[in-house]
Amino acid sequence: MQKACAKYAKNIHILFSVIMRDQANMTGNDPKWIIFDGDIDPMWIESLNTVMDDNKVLTLASNERIALTAHMRLLFEISNLR
């Protein structure tokens, strides 16, 4: 199980960008939540600074920019803060 989790952890940035892009393109005013439950790699979370600051835009390595819409929310539930 730990190997499977490690495999997915390496690709979390890809999965997150796909989910965020899909939600940004959804129509309607219903709330849209992306929930992270579990440990978060410090190097990966560093790349989310622009999403969590006033810009609210995810900038990918390809320079693609995905804006967090007014109805989108991110929730991080982690076991501890260090």
TrEMBL record:
Top-level division of the source organism's lineage: Eukaryota
BP GO terms, sorted: microtubule-based movement
InterPro entries (alphabetical): DHC, P-loop_NTPase
GO MF annotation, one: dynein intermediate chain binding
GO CC terms: dynein complex
Listed name of the protein: Dynein heavy chain
Organism per entry: Frieseomelitta varia
